[in-house]
Sequence to fold (398 residues):
Amino acid sequence: MTTLWVLFIFLNFDLLLKAGHCTESGGQVLSITPNTQEQVEILKNVSTQYQTVLWKPVSPHNIKELTQVHLYVPAKSSETVRNLLQRQNIDHEVMLPNADVIIEMQMRNDSTDPRSGSTFYHRYHTLEDLSLNNRPNKKAMWIDCGIHAREWISPAFCLMFVHYSLSFYNQNPDITQILDNMDVYVMPVMNPDGYKYTWTKNRMWRKNRSSKKNTSCIGVDLNRNFDANWCTIGASPDPCEEIYCGAFPESEPESLAVANFLRSHKDSIQIYLSIHSYSQMLIIPYSCSMDEADNHSDLYEMVKQAAENIRRYYRSVYTYGPGAKTIYLAPGGSDDWAYNIGIKYSFTFELQDRGHYGFLLPPSHIQGACNEALIAVKTIALKVIEKTQTETGPRETV
Ligand code: 0X9
Ligand code: ZN
Fold:
């Protein structure tokens, strides 16, 4: 019975709209077909006047003979436009008689009414709905994966992180708190050309795939291409080497794009995180020199706690510390560069394993490796949120 009622109402609503009873006075969308070049010219003219809005094609320049044009005509010019089309013998019919009614309904966003049957994914959402964090001065975290092509566990982590965030927001208190307090920018593969190459030609490829005049050697190490003691000891000016730093800092489209984005968002981005493999390490600045970061003790405490949590939950050992002292001098890295532009919580994670499979970590280890990285991300992000709140005082609840 209920179903019948619902159907009845819908059918009649549709009829009502088709008949145009509630829309005679509203704006309409017309479907118009010009048959001659002269009609095309007239239509081009109409589509730029009378406060009409051209839906299809996107621009009057693209209007052509025998091709449908969809034009929104506001109520106040409806008569003028339709008379003009009639006078010029231009074929037209009303496509949407009730455009204004629909616009009004959609913008009122009736679908947000909790009584409306549709689920989250079957409704349109306002910008406020779509952003979990509408606070002024909202903070953010950046995570990139896949700088180095052969480190396949890295893009796998970014995907898992997005899936986890979407699945467990409002279920898991940690991810809920993180997403309530910060936006997260995730770049799943920073080096797509290199990554593709590892799938198609050479599983061991590390760099990007850019080519250079005067050498047959391909690729720049993107993690030597940032402007942090660029191309000093630990990087190479030789295009044939795995740690080739490129012709100049940010010479590569991949590093330039990331650097530009981070530069323009540096006031909101608090945490920079770059995911690599392998060797199970949580690295803090600096890797480009033996210097200690200004907030070394904060950073050190964070990676220490993250490593302890990984150990406690998953029994895996992660070492931690400043890159140059923990692994090697490696200038031109994204983490040091991000740190130097003011993103004071900057990290590189080296995920599983410690040298058994190395880059060839089997798929059966993906979940475990990602869980370890996830707990480290949570530890650090929650700590940063806590510190920010104590520094600025607790925020008002919105
Ligand atoms: O050498 C690197 O770029 C990273 N190790 S990897 O085995 N994934 O290649 C370490 C990066 C540490 N951070 C910086 N070098 N800035
Ligand atoms: Zn790497």
Summary: Residues 147-148, 151, 276 surround zinc ion (ligand 2) (CB under 6 Å). The radius of gyration is 29 Å. The mean pLDDT is 89. The longest strand covers residues 269-277.
